[in-house]
Input
Amino acid sequence: MRAVALLILVLVAPVAGANDKPNVVVILADDLGYGDVRALNPDGKIPTPNLDALAASGCAFTDAHSPSAVCSPTRYGILTGRYAWRSKLQSGVLGGLSPRLIEPGRLTVAQLLKDNGYHTACVGKWHLGMDWQLKPDKKVTELNIEPREQVFNVEYEKPIKNGPNAVGFDYYFGISASLDMVPYTFIENNKVLANPTEDRDLTMFAGKPGRTRKGPAAPGFEVEGVLPELTKRAVGYIAEREKHNKPFFLYMPLTTPHTPVAPSKEWAGKSKLNAYADFVMETDAAVGEVLAALKKHGFEDNTLVVFTSDNGCSPQADFPALLKLGHNPSYQFRGHKADVYEGGHRVPLLVRWPARVKPKTTSGELVCLTDVMATVAEVIDAKVPADAGEDSFSFLPALGLSKGRPRAHLVVHSINGSFGVREGKLKLCLCRGSGGWSAPRPGKDDAGLPNVQLYDLEADLGEKTNLHEKHAGAVVRITKVLEDWVEKGRSTPGPAQKNAVPVVIRKK
Output
């Protein structure tokens, strides 16, 4: 009986005391498919030894989701604990020159941790907008990728305002957006590391024709050097923290394996599949370097590591070629990046915390990447304010570390703004097709299809049988749940909040 009582005390006590708060490392891969991680897909053909070891040393989630099937909205959700469709960005992604998306005064995970005694750093791809200084009478697109005629409208040599440092990060090093978007140069805190004085493009996929968008590039800046440099900076940051008696938060949004797909010479050809698979292997090795640095500097045991991806795998990976060789980046799921289908947003999620999380465990609980904020807050015994983290639920109950109730619902969003809503095993898609890039595509080959789709994911993981007519009551009920969340401005308990702009639930 005494042993049982002690176990109960462990579970209900605050996860961290004032003097033993864990470090937090969140590593976000870019366009990595669920099926690309061997620990989640035993039939996968890409070796991922470091991610497999990470999974074995902690918990692997099998029903984890990005809130969006594309990158900028997911990144907004991770850092704010709020669905991005509540912001101004209700479809698509930002460009490399887009202004800041995170609203002034909105709490981020970084600011929450900073306010609770953490040193905070972001190393990698930002893609949430920053305020570049523009040339007189010039402009840049706000909520989309800027056209060619705008790429030299910026005075790149001048300081940048309202970047990562303005939303809670003490230190930032990385690039402004995706690696196939201008400007092609590194940024440190609020300045470019090298002025992008050249006008050029980059290889889109090693060994194939096709180039990235042409625009400002720093001399010597090449795709092959980006991941190694980001890894070097992250490892250096971890080493530096050994000198300080202060917990740290490292957010590392990788640029890979997103296009341009150009693995370094060391990794080219290693997978014997294609360049994308080589890039996945190089990404796995980069994660391994960061994990090794945590161990080397004595941080491993009391560091909460979260590894995930911002959405599903992009079709740029060349699915036909990979499928022919027996590898499916989307695992058993329908669709891929950009889609409302599972392949667009069901992502790998691996969580390790040796001091608390039991190794070699698996969780089938429903989790969303917006849940990082509430989880971290519970870990450090901090309170999320009523006007923050509106769509964030702690996933510590899924890890067996608290007595709270797991998430029961989930909202996902495709690239064109189509909604998908999970309720237990049921998934309602409020669109005729994928809402993204796979067939049936919106406005292209979805004509004549039903306006809604309802799937039983327990019986039909591949989303092949539309049950909307058979279960019309479920369609009405789940739609009402979404409507209530839109109206209230949140899906978590708490006071109503205002969405930035009106939210359109059904696409015409």
In short: Confidence is low (pLDDT under 50) at residues 1-14. The longest strand covers residues 23-29. Residues 22-407 form a domain with the Alkaline Phosphatase, subunit A fold (CATH 3.40.720.10). The chain has two domains: 22-407, 411-488.
